[in-house]
Design goal:
By secondary structure, this protein is of the alpha/beta class. The protein is built from 8 helices and 12 strands.
């Protein structure tokens, strides 16, 4: 699997090259935003690791440019810790956000999760997590073989998360997807429907392991 690392810190890039290569990844690197776009077009990476604060186009501009032609997962790896920066990157099209300094084990776990998504066949409409099976083609959900009834809104929320497995989905993108409006901004609705989904699909709704909340940002479906 090929990974594009876009970061203007040569020491970090060198460390990631060594570590990722040791785990079987093929690494290409760019030191600025413009070079990242050019290299992505040339090398067609499976996953992109991207810093936000780069010269010659910042990270959000790079994400927007990449999303014009590729669906490859993008993980932002940045020292910016503000929730506004994270939400801007995710809304632009990033799939995940890791804050520097980070634990390499955490980054590798995120890469594996998004790598499974990138490698998954788009022809397979079935998504499985725990004892739950979600069929996107027939719009049915079963748990331990038994049919689970979801309301139309619960289904739309679960379906959107299932179409982005492992990725962090922002609250705003979910609100827009479910209610089809830029003007809906009350994330209390999302908390309510997520609570209902957990009661129906999690073994312990109070301690979910698949339908996860990313505080201040959104939700993630962990397969």
């Amino acid at each position: 699997m090929k990974i594009l690392v876009a970061d203007d810190d040569p020491q970090l890039v060198r460390a990631l090259r060594i570590t990722l290569a040791a785990h079987g990844y093929d690494v290409v690197a760019a030191a600025d935003g413009a070079a990242a776009i050019t290299l992505a077009a040339q090398s067609h990476p499976d996953i992109v690791l991207l810093d936000l604060g780069m010269p010659h186009l910042d990270g959000v501009q790079v994400i927007e440019a990449l999303r014009g032609w590729t669906t490859a997962p993008i993980i932002v790896v940045s020292g910016r810790t503000g929730s506004a920066d994270k939400v801007d990157a995710l809304d632009a099209g990033a799939d995940d956000y890791v804050t520097k300094p980070f634990q390499i084990d955490e980054l590798l776990a995120r890469l594996r999760a998004l790598g499974r998504r990138a490698a998954a066949s788009v022809d397979d409409p079935v998504v499985r997590f725990g004892d739950v099976e979600l069929d996107l083609a027939t719009k049915t959900v079963t748990r331990a073989g038994a049919r689970v009834h979801l309301t139309p809104t619960e289904w739309r929320m679960l379906e959107f998360l299932a179409r982005h497995p492992g990725a962090l989905v922002t609250r705003q993108s979910l609100l827009k997807e479910i209610w089809a409006s830029e003007n809906v901004n009350d994330s209390g609705y999302l908390r309510l429907y997520m609570s209902q989904l957990r009661k129906k699909l999690e073994a312990d709704p109070a301690r979910p392991v698949h339908l996860l909340t990313e505080t201040g940002m959104g939700y993630r479906l962990h397969l």
